[in-house]
Specification:
Length: about 150
């Protein structure tokens, strides 16, 4: 019993820390919140971001994460009701896989998803709503992403 109580307390702390994660990002240089604005990345950064997002290992990770969250939700309850953290992660993964040169931040609250940041083309901006709505539990999408092609510096 003496070992169980510290274990229980530490588990609650770890879960609480993970639950406090603010924004899900498609790249390390994406905005930290959906309230921030970003500048166009330089060409080298954009190429590295795209290379990372399109690697087979990363694609497998994204697909595995989405599949695991959906399976967990199917077992645990209503598939239309999703935790905010699950929505953020799944939408971020979907955007990262399909718009690999993006610098996007994703936030979710009760099914409403907000996406901010930059993408290379107008076509990519228009993909965001469709891709986000493919995730179960997304009820609306606020798309604040802007077009910012990579710049040479």
């Amino acid at each position: 019993m003496k070992k169980f109580i510290p274990f229980l307390i530490s588990t609650v702390l770890v879960i609480g820390t993970v639950g406090c994660e603010n924004t899900s990002k498609t790249s390390s240089d994406a905005p930290n919140t959906t309230d921030e604005t970003t500048e166009a990345p330089d060409v080298q950064t954009a190429q590295q971001t795209q290379s990372d997002a399109t690697s087979e290992v990363r694609k497998d990770q994204i697909e595995s994460d989405i599949r695991a969250r959906e399976q967990r939700n199917d077992v645990g309850g209503d598939d239309a009701q999703r935790a905010d953290a699950d929505l953020k992660s799944e939408v971020r993964g979907k955007l990262e896989a399909n718009i690999p040169a993006s610098q996007l931040a994703v936030d979710a609250e009760e099914g409403a998803v907000t996406v901010t940041g930059t993408v290379p083309t107008q076509n990519d901006v228009s993909k965001i709503d469709t891709l986000a709505k493919e995730i179960k539990g997304v009820t609306s999408v606020t798309n604040k992403a802007t077009v910012a092609p990579a710049t040479s510096q």
